Amino acid sequence: xxxxxxxxAFAERTADxxxxxVVGARAAVRWVDSIAVGTAAxxxxxxxxxxxxxxxFSIQPFFEQLYNQTNLKYTGPNTTTQTIGRxxxxxxxxxxxxxxxxxxxxxxxxxxxxxxxxNAPAGTAASPFHPPAAxxxxxxxxxxxxxxxxxxxxxxxNDAISLSRGELVPKKATDKLKAQVVYFVQPVANAASAHxxxxxxxxxxxxxxxxxxxxxxxxxxxxxxxELGHGDSLPDEYNERWGxxxxxxxxxxxxxxxxxxxxxxxxxxxxQVTTPDSGLMNGVQTMRNRYFWHSAEFARTVSSxxxxxxxxxxxxxxxxxPHETVGPETATTVPRRSYLYWPIQDKVDDTAxxxxxxxxxxxxxxxxxxxxxxxPNGPFEGTLVVVVKLHFTFDxxxxxSVAAILxxxxxxxxxxxxxxxxxxxxxxxxxxxxxxRSTGWCPTSGRTSxxx
Length: 452
Prior knowledge:
By secondary structure, this protein is of the alpha+beta class. The protein has 7 helices and 16 strands.
């Protein structure tokens, strides 16, 4: 790494040229200038730069994934989309060998601008990061370095909460490629060089204590690492109860259709309780296999080798089916959708006749801690989310009781319908996985969203 870019030093040699003092040494080659082909933090970039492939090195600058636009209704595969993610994603080949297996690295490289306010917010206590504090710029530098190291440590399996590094292992024993997934975060001095910026002191998500896990939800929770997950193209996994006119109940504004991972180690109703065993993109805690799936899909498209995600010794074979390209999208070189967060089958506004109407959203679920050990009676390979949207109108007589009525309705619905049944049969032949054209199996999960 140099000058905000990745250089390959695997294959090229310095040429026999009078201008070179050394001939035949390994040459570090910048195949693409990510800063030049991208855009400054805070600006949109569409389309994203193309992927560049060499024999031992592939890079996708400004990687992103596509999701349903959260403030619009999900209508199916051709729904209105939004993008999440700005990271340079690279596959480095032949970094080592393990027996007869080639060992590679999928590198996630972030250039981050920390946006400090010029002065401490009015009415707040004195800040060590603003004048007149002594050495405030040195303290900012220390903050940025620590924050970058600790965010990367959460993803790399190098802190007290996240104890294992994500690995990619071949699905077939005859394929001799495995890889580690490694994150590197670098502070930069200006927006022109940055993928994105993190605001603090009133300008964004970070606080003056975010250089290390803040533990604001539960011991070890880390909001800064959660925000890095968005830079890495991962969505929020909780439902948007705040500011969505649902009186802090499940709302119509879902971050992914049906929010299938919302119960991963967290209970957002009503006290917003998370545990140290909640997924980072839900309860801002620890890593799950699914957070590395886009690494596996990126490496698969480069190498043509199907890969599984391994995280520790208990979760060694995570996968979901690759997502098909959805028109008018035509690029197939970099996967931009995943069946992690898109239903593999759906029926939107389905009805059983009469006054009934609901959405059926079927998800493929790979093997990770949530699907294997946290969902009761697991493991499961799929989840069927049943979404029923209810619009309540209260007159003045009942308005003072809204805060008591809605939780009572929610608790009754969940007691009668939530996660009440599961299916073990499968319509798929042994050894195959479902696609949008063949589905079976699933536990069922009831979900009622409210609007008041």
